[in-house]
Write a structure and sequence with these properties.
16 strands; binds iron/sulfur cluster; Alpha-Beta Plaits; 14 helices; Rossmann fold; 376 residues
Length: 376
């Protein structure tokens, strides 16, 4: 029996601390011993404020750090942000201030170690400090994800892939979302965090996981020793079939899906959570893939009035599908692999996933057709 613990809270520090300590005790946090190296891995994607709901909230990071320090461990807080300096992220998120007086090391991952991977991949390169930690406390933020539907406990560990290795993985797996989900699950299997605590207090819906998403108050913290079980519980909470989250499906393939998941505490049911539209990027006969992708498949688009031409999107794009011309950012949709890294890193929320006009017209026709045939 794999347990997932749920507590309803806001961000009042006293209540967050009690909830995190209770959940850690329930998960067997007493196994943290003096002299152990504990790595706390929040979601530190990019510079953002707590009200943007992009990053794990500072109160949850602080509570997890305090728990490990109370057990006598040496504690480090790290991630490999997609964009922006680590110091700016600590400052804007409030994490730097929250941890200011605690004996904890905060720094970005820099060095990787190689390890063999399951076929079709040959090897993974993951942050040395994550591989060498005695205990990992994984602190994901509950957010939608325009490519992978949701980013939860398993996906959060992709932050242990250092720097530009991340876009490389996007490029290697290309438009194949299932292949990317398999990479994510292999990263999880290599790191196997001991504890996972998800910040679902101020979560994100819509076009996450960056600033294009919309903050949504949910008011829960979930914890589990098993990241896959935690992700399945979130799917239940949001009315998503667990296999629709491709990391769950890939975990099942690799024999990492726990057979029996039990939720302790009150798991709310949120029927109206706004999910991104995530469809297949390739469909139809192969000879038409190019034209279908260009005209019918959802793609990133820029709201020009919000774009400050800062360059983050074209610097990060793994497919080099973006360029600046005539004071505008242009996409090459033939190259674009729909990874939505550009949407993730845009500091101004200027990029969103949109269906092209032909795709919109087709969807409308299909909906009208089904409505006509399903009405009594
Ligand atoms: S779309 Fe966003 S990331 Fe790209 S240049 Fe404009 S503001 Fe910067
Ligand atoms: S343009 Fe955006 S979605 Fe397309 S490949 Fe580049 S980063 Fe990914």
């Amino acid at each position: 029996m794999t347990k997932v613990f749920v507590r309803s809270v806001g961000y009042d520090y006293g209540r967050v601390r009690s909830a995190v300590f209770e959940i850690m005790d329930s998960m067997g946090g007493e196994s943290i011993d003096s002299g152990m190296n504990v790595l706390v891995k929040p979601n530190l994607l990019a510079p953002a404020f707590p009200e943007n709901a992009v990053l794990t909230h500072h109160s949850i990071v602080k509570a997890a750090v305090e728990y490990a320090l109370d057990r006598g461990a040496t504690v480090q807080v790290s991630d490999s942000p997609a964009t922006g300096s680590f110091q700016r992220i600590l400052k804007g998120s409030g994490i730097g201030e929250a941890l200011r007086e605690l004996p904890v090391l905060c720094r970005p991952f820099e060095r990787s170690l190689r390890l063999p991977a399951e076929p079709p991949f040959t090897q993974l390169e993951l942050a040395e400090e994550a591989l060498k930690a005695d205990i990992i406390i994984n602190l994901p933020k509950m957010k939608t994800h325009s490519q992978m539907l949701l980013t939860l406990a398993v996906k959060n560990l992709f932050g242990c892939v250092v720097g530009l290795r991340k876009p490389e993985w996007h490029m290697k797996t290309g438009v194949n979302r299932i292949a990317f989900a398999r990479v994510l699950v292999q990263v999880y299997a290599a790191l196997k965090p001991s504890f996972n605590i998800l910040d679902g207090v101020l979560a994100m819906e819509g076009q996450g996981p960056g600033k294009s998403g919309t903050p949504r108050k949910v008011g829960v913290i979930l914890g589990s020793k098993n990241a896959v079980a935690l992700d399945v519980a979130v799917c239940r909470m949001l009315g998503v079939a667990p296999e629709d989250l491709l990391t769950n499906m890939a975990a099942g393939e690799l024999g990492l899906m726990p057979p029996d998941i039990q939720v302790e505490g009150t798991l709310p049911f949120i029927a109206d959570y706004r999910m991104p539209h995530v469809g297949s990027v390739v469909f139809g006969p192969e000879m038409f893939h190019g034209i279908l992708r260009r005209h019918f498949v959802q793609r990133p688009e820029i709201e020009e009035s919000s774009c400050k031409l800062c360059g983050e999107c074209w610097k990060f794009c793994p497919a080099h599908a973006l360029e600046r011309t005539n004071e505008k950012v242009r996409f090459d949709y033939d190259r674009c692999i729909r990874c939505y890294c550009c949407l993730e890193v845009c500091p101004y929320g200027a990029i969103s996933a949109q269906e092209p006009p032909a795709g919109r017209a087709l969807s409308k026709t299909v909906r009208t057709f089904f409505r006509a045939f399903s009405s009594p």
